[in-house]
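Reply to dn_fold:

You asked what the input looked like. This is it:
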Amino acid sequence: MHELICSQEDRPGTSKSTREIARAVGISEGSVRNIAKSDIGLSSFKRTPVQVINEATRQKRLTRSKSLLRRLTVQKSKRVFFTDEKIFYISPPVNSQNNRLWCAGRKRDVDPKRLLVERAKFSAHVMVSAGISYAGKGRLHFVADKAKINADYYVNSLLPQLIEDCEKLMPGSFIFQQDGAPAHTARQTQEWLALKCPEMINKDEWPPNSPDLNPLDYHVWGAMLHMYQKYTPKPTNKTELQAVLEKIWDDLPQQSVEKAIMSFRKRLQMCVKADGGHIEQLIN
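and this is what came back:
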């Protein structure tokens, strides 16, 4: 049983699911879980989807994380305005493993309205752009429908609003952050920001493939999605979706944002400790 459940150290990925093991040995999944936990003393951990990190990316994550740690003290981290873009769907994907219905009797006897979750194949969605800081949240900016976020659109439509948010929250003393998206690293964007920002993290300073280092990615977007999933009634069109997202954004506790930002340096330290590799497995 131990060999069926556990991956071998020299053969990662060889473990079988509890369902596969149950079928192989002719017992229930519950029995497999009980044996694994009580008899063998194993623990179950959820796999986490992560970005691909090749050797070149790992080296950049390592060196740039070290550099940001030296540059951004605790006090300076409080002046960083973290930014990002995110797509929100009217009907977001549902993880069937976490969306279960408990009831008596057989599955075939359950009312389909309770058991089935409808989702359009191409769910309507909106893209937002926003920034956060220890001093407060900026506004939630909506990308124009069918707009392509290239350097021209970013510089003319989104950046002026983001910088306006920065000036309102931290007049003349903010540090502007953005990731390595093509529209962000374009020469037009970098030159525009150099003229408008008192200080910024330029395209060669932010670690690549690092949503694990941006508070919007590792906290805010997930918190908003969690709040959206509980929201009723659900929106039925893009206009309603925008209104709901703005309400959720306004209701997002600043205290939780501050806590996420204060973990930024800790995550940089984790990245250095992991030699530029993944850190998700190190986070509780």
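Residues 151-169 form the longest helix (19 residues).
Hope that clears it up.
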